[in-house]
Amino acid sequence: MGIINATPDSFSDGAELQKLGTNSFQLDIDKALSRAEAMVADGATFIDVGGESTRPGAVAVTEQEELDRVIPIIEAIRARLDVCISADTSSPTVMREAINNGAELINDVRALSTPGAIEAMSASKAAVCLMHMQGKPSTMQENASQSSYKSVVEEVFEFLRMRVEHCLDQGIERSRLLIDPGFGFGKTVQHNYLLLKKLARFSELEIPILIGVSRKSMIGDVTGRAIDQRLAGSVAATTFALASGAKIVRTHDVAATMDAIRVNSAYSSAE
Fold this sequence. Notes:
The chain is of the alpha/beta class. It has one domain: Dihydropteroate synthase-like (TIM Barrel, Alpha-Beta Barrel).
């Protein structure tokens, strides 16, 4: 899953898609489409488009801002590329519009907890990824070290189990569900690595696991590398996740991640 951040304040690369010569953030559709094309050429089968940054400390945007950023990219990708489009959003309105314009997956960091979100998904045929997050993006890391986790793995597991059950009760078929333990979302470095080490536990839910570790602080904190120098660490973490059952890897660096996936596949199938 390749990432397109249509935001000026993504922790990694969103501002790179801004039109030149503009003071306020205006998305350059051609740049975004070129990035999507390159990711697909490198092996991506999903493109995840987000219009609201969920990095630690991020400020919320209006629903209209999110629509203005996300929908034109989805339309452009749908017209040009044969790829599954994912919309990274928690807004029911954005979910509906994204699906109407070609998105086949909703990637929701709030696990359909926003009022109206689960109804929007129940009325569609799209897939949805349910992610665990403690708190909200603007403050989630401020309180992570003082969090009330007694057992981060079991508490994240139980949260996702309950959200899966709620979705099933609301008419969203199991075949449409993905889960994500939410690396970096209200968790310390130690929490993140314990979740990575115990990732196989989540396979017990019998729902495909999506993981996102690409360039995150859990990589930077142990390597001492800047955001744009975390490729090797991200690939190493990805390899551990694949060995523990991850089925989809969300990444900024598709080509290198595909190499890790291919090597893991060859290793797993060797007899």
